Amino acid sequence: MRLKSSFLFLILFFLFFPFSTAQAANLLDVVINEIAWMGTEINYQDEWLELYNNAKSSINLEGWQLKAADDTPKINLRGIIPANSFYLLERTDDNALPGITADQIYSGVLGNKGENLKFYDNLGNLIDVVDCSSGWFGGDNRTKQTMERKNTKASGSDPANWKTSQNAGGTPKTKNSEGIEISLPSVTAITDNLATEPLSKTSLEPNQVTALADVVINEILPSPEGPDAEEEWIEVFNQNNFEVDLAGWKIEDVSGKITTYTFPSETKISPQGFLVLPRTETKITLNNDGDGVSLTSPAGNIIDQVNYEKAPQGKAYNRVNSNWTWSNNLTPGAANIVEKTEIRSLEDQSTSEARAKKELAAIGEQTPKSSKFLFVLLIALAIAIFSGIMILILKKKLKPKQVL
Q1: Whole-angstrom Cα distance, residue 318 to residue 113?
Q2: I need a surface site. Which of 52, 117, 127, 202 has the fewest CB within 10 A?
Q3: Nearest-5° angle of CA 327, CA 328, CA 331?
Q4: What pTM did the predictor assign?
């Protein structure tokens, strides 16, 4: 009898818990999508934030953290956010938005003059940053219009990627509105001012530095043929036609024991120039079994980031336009050299990825009906098995004893 009960428990467990939720570890998998830093028309204390899941699968937010630079607010997240869906955080209680249920309640006030919000996954990886430490990019405290993100797959610290909501109260747990465009200085006007003066963090506002200083991570060597501690290096490249002052900028790895290197004062990179950073100087360890490198401005804005999986020994990871590939040619301090076969492999990879995305999208369109049918089938099967076992148990109990 005990054996039958254990068998029944195992059957029910695997039937009702057949799927697990995915853990995100990539930049912008889940992002801050809308911020009501000004509260609502009913109460200015009714602040709320909205998250959005860019991934194609559900993500368990247990262990994730969203916090401001001053730790107010500091939110330890929990629960599940479904694929391509919203997650609502309301301050203090669930009364901020009548008729809309919050996914989580938090405490802590958002400052009206701005906040630097950072979003980490359960492994401590930085997933999204909205650096409004110099002032919110959108929203109106008088009319209670919220600050809405335009593109969930673009930087959250780019002021051009935000707008003020079309109407008061914004769009909690729904698609963002067309919004009201935020007036920003034109790139041309700012560039004209640079004609006689090199770009520096003191001559422009932090957000303008971010917009114009097109400095990127260009090549990395995680697994050299010699000792890792002596021969690893990271290379950055200035794609601008003007000099960039990197003083105060930071570069760090993104996995395992994270090490941050801050560029010292007077660090400059020439127009179309390269800067090689050896591990002996930065102390940054690039893990051979997978890691990444992130480049941030003095204001904390992520300028560029690259992640890689297992690193082949003796090969450098090279930027090729907007893609990356491993190459036998190591070119620290010079333009990348990639063989035709490596480019062809990269093109094949891009084609395969595009095909896979198309197939996933097609499967995604069919999934709702299939999932619903499968769920109903599993429920019916579980009920049938349970009923059968119960009948056998009852028959055994009700069977008349033989009289000797």
Answers
A1: 41
A2: 202
A3: 80
A4: 0.45
